Amino acid sequence: MQSTGRQYEVTKSDEQWRAELSPEEYQVLRQAGTERPFTGEYTDTKTEGVYSCRACGAELFRSDTKFESHCGWPSFFAPLAEDRVEYIEDNSLGMRRVEVRCGSCGSHLGHVFEGEGYNTPTDQRYCINSISLTLQPKE
Questions:
Q1: Residues in the chain with pLDDT < 50?
Q2: Going from the N-terminus, what domains does the chain have, and what CATH number goes with each?
Q3: Which of 20, 28, 37, 113 lies at a 20 to 30 A Cα distance from 74?
Q4: CB count, 10 Å around CB of 42?
Q5: Given the residues 56, 102, 105, 127, the one annotated as active site
Q6: Catalytic residue status for 105
């Protein structure tokens, strides 16, 4: 994962991340991997609550911004607050994309896309890996 030079609130060594995360979580969160579409636990979840970073626990998205995009990953139209995420231009795979990372620990979450025509307030789709998130259901 490329370094942004940013100082994160939560910093751990590579060995600490490997010890705390499963191999699959580590591959996505710390190596900017992607889980296979339609396999994640939150793809179709409608439970009310807050989605947090699985690596550090920072609150990132609310269920009321989640929508059905049928893309194979959980989709949100906005983060909880802009400082909760960071954006990195990603020109890999021969296209321009914007990577979304946790603003607290720098872990890879997914990508954000604009102008796809979804009927959402922001015209954005935060396409986020389920394995990058933990859902805390509303009580």
A1: none
A2: 14-137 (2.170.150.20)
A3: 20
A4: 21
A5: 127
A6: no
